[in-house]
Design a protein that fits this description.
By secondary structure, this protein is an alpha/beta fold. It folds into two domains: 5-67 and 95-196 and 387-401, Glycogen Phosphorylase B (Rossmann fold), CATH 3.40.50.2000; 199-385, Glycogen Phosphorylase B (Rossmann fold, 3-Layer(aba) Sandwich), CATH 3.40.50.2000. It has helices at residues 18-29, 45-51, 70-76, 84-117, 132-141, 157-165, 174-182, 209-214, 236-249, 267-278, 294-300, 316-323, 336-339, 354-366, 368-385, 388-401; strands at residues 5-11, 35-41, 56-59, 121-125, 145-149, 168-171, 190-192, 223-227, 254-258, 285-289, 303-305, 328-331, 346-349. The strands form two sheets. The protein has a seven-stranded parallel sheet, sandwiched between helices. A six-stranded parallel sheet has the order 10-9-8-11-12-13, sandwiched between helices. Helix 7 links the parallel strand 6 (168-171) and strand 7 (190-192). The longest helix has 34 residues, at 84-117. It is globular. It starts with a strand and ends with a helix.
Length: 404
């Protein structure tokens, strides 16, 4: 008799980022003797085979209203839709189109998968506002729905309505919990479960000597880097302006931008390459493009930087840097406030303050003993609070609470 709790995990991402990365850590840490996840996601099949070995996966490319909106954008740009009533009618029509012709159809597809596997719970991975089809699927299956909120939701009557349809919400940081409270979700329906890491992937045994050769780095040259998708809100522009200040004090220091263009948009990436050239950083900042060897690249750094120019939902990069024993400099908003013990495991600076960002990095580059101490304490903090075993235990308790 198979008495495992079967969980239908609906993930509406299709590019690799924090949401799918965190889901990988969760699924791999679950007790497979007690839980059986069935994943539906838009991620590439190669990634599913690599990251979710032994797990039942369905590849389903989601349709998302802010991406599949070319026709709406053209229609809305017509002059007579500047009239507020006509714009309201247009937006209402668009909403009804998505609910009945897209979301409901997708919900039926999810229901068929759920029925096939006899699932007892639906777990939504990613922002709730784009998961109406998943919420509907849970209702059609007659099972509870747990929404794992990984980004801030707009406080809007529609999102508030969606929130009421969910049985329980998982917030990845205190800032996300505050966002849910603004949506009218009662505190007892929210659990804060921080994202976490498989610490075996981030340890001292990681080798990085090949990177010294690859990038032609000089021995003893100080290095600092920002990691993640190269998109505007990740603070790449602010990082480059800070790098200009750092270069004036540490001409031999090398900055790294580790990541590629997101969602196929290369325009911003190219713009940042041009900006680096205009700031005179051509030989002082390296654009690595997309990389899989993140632990090795972090080991290469003396300081790991996080510079998001809006509140970060969580900040996987921050705990990855700490796990590699590196001091971090992060912006004081959202998830990093939960993660970084300011002054002990790293330094927090105000959002958008390029000078403060540069000064914090410079302060750490100047003091090797401080870097080592912060790195050691950071690793200890990750081991205590952000390990995937603890992450899985918390999520399993939530799953058990809503299943027979």
């Amino acid at each position: 008799m198979n008495d495992k709790i079967k969980v239908l995990v609906l993930d509406n991402t299709f590019t690799f980022g924090g949401a799918i990365n965190s889901l990988c850590h969760l699924i791999n840490a679950l007790d497979k003797e007690r839980f059986e996840p069935i994943i539906v996601t838009g991620q590439r099949e190669e990634l599913l085979k690599e990251k979710f070995t032994g797990t039942t996966c369905y590849n389903h490319m989601p349709r998302l209203p802010w991406i599949d909106n070319h026709n709406y954008t053209k229609i809305a740009s017509l002059p007579f839709f500047k009239n507020s009533m006509l714009r309201f009618i247009l937006n209402l029509s668009r909403f009804l189109y998505w609910v009945f012709l897209v979301d409901f159809s997708e919900a039926l597809y999810f229901r068929r998968i759920g029925k096939r596997h006899g699932v007892q719970l639906v777990h939504l991975n990613n922002i709730m506002g784009s998961q109406l089809s998943g919420i509907m699927a849970a209702k059609l299956l007659g099972v509870p729905c747990v929404a794992h909120l990984r980004d801030f939701e707009e406080v809007h009557p529609i999102t508030k309505f969606y929130a009421r349809l969910v049985d329980h919400h998982v917030a990845i940081s205190g800032a996300i919990k505050d966002n849910l409270l603004l949506l009218g979700v009662s505190e007892e329906k929210i659990s804060v479960v921080h994202d976490a890491l498989d610490l075996d992937e981030f340890n001292g045994a990681v080798h990085c000597n090949y990177l010294v050769r690859e990038f032609g780095l000089e021995s003893g040259k100080l290095r600092y880097g920002i990691f993640g998708r190269v998109v505007d809100w990740k603070g790449i522009r602010e990082f480059l302006h800070a790098a200009r200040i750092i270069a004036d004090q540490f001409p031999e220091a090398c900055g790294f931008i580790v990541g590629g263009p997101s969602d196929g948009d290369v325009a911003f990436y190219d713009e940042m390459v041009v900006l680096a050239y205009e700031l005179g950083l051509k030989d002082k900042v390296v654009f690595t493009g997309y990389r899989k060897d993140i632990p090795a690249l972090m080991k290469l750094m003396d300081v790991v930087v996080h510079a998001s120019n809006r509140p970060e939902p969580f900040g996987m990069v921050v705990i990855e840097g700490m796990a590699m024993g590196k001091p971090v400099v992060a912006t004081r908003a959202g998830g990093p406030i939960d993660i970084v013990a300011d002054g002990r495991t790293g330094l927090l600076v105000d959002v958008g303050d390029e000078v403060a960002l540069a000064e914090a990095v410079i302060a750490l580059l100047q003091q090797i003993e401080l870097r080592q101490k912060m790195g050691r304490l950071g690793r200890e903090r990750v081991e205590e609070l952000f390990n995937n075993k603890l992450y899985a235990e918390k999520m399993q308790k939530i799953f058990q609470r809503f299943t027979p």
